[in-house]
Amino acid sequence: MAETKPWYLSRTIWASIVTVVSGMGGLFGLPVEDIDRQALTDTLLQAVIAVSGLFAILGRVRATSRIA
Prior knowledge:
Elements lengths: L10 H17 L9 H26 L6
Helix pairs in contact: 1-2
């Protein structure tokens, strides 16, 4: 595995975040048994990808230097 990627594009990281948050939700009395964790992970990952794409576009638009 030679390729690298940012942490926020890792399915493992997002699945872990969903697991931790749902576990904490259970501690606070929220009903989390019926949540489809795989679907939630996929949805969160898609949202992160969309937001990071928007930041990339806005960063390029607001840049003051040219790309070489």
